[in-house]
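Trying the structure run again after the queue cleared.
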Amino acid sequence: MKKLLLIGTLLILPLAAGDSHAEPDLSAPDAFAAASAGKVRLIDIRTPPEWHQTGVAPGAGRIDFHRGPEALLNSVLQLVGGDKNAPIALICRTGNRTSHAQKFLQAQGFTRVYNVKEGMAGSAAGPGWLKRDLPVESCAQC
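Done. Tokens:
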């Protein structure tokens, strides 16, 4: 029930705000290159068991999407030092959670939110971080 409420909240909030923002996407290789160059802050919004299972992209911030919208918002603000104009790229397993989180954060005033739509495992948008053999770090503390 809590997950349904969370997803419903994340879906409705952008609609209430008019959802006039663009929805830019990045491929996994482009996100890796941008994050490596310091041009974007990569944020993995999967769960701790997912991080533990596959590892995470090097240097990626980790925020458990299922903790709810307020935790997501506060955690992202903390990762970017309160700068809603800081470029961030969201990644999850297949791009579903990131699509919702992207719209939610845009509705909260974030201006440069990118979606790594193919995610870690791949989707219709692409083969994914793991199948592209992009680097991961183990997540022993997850």
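Residues 1-21 have pLDDT under 50 and may be disordered. Worth checking whether this holds up in the mutant runs.
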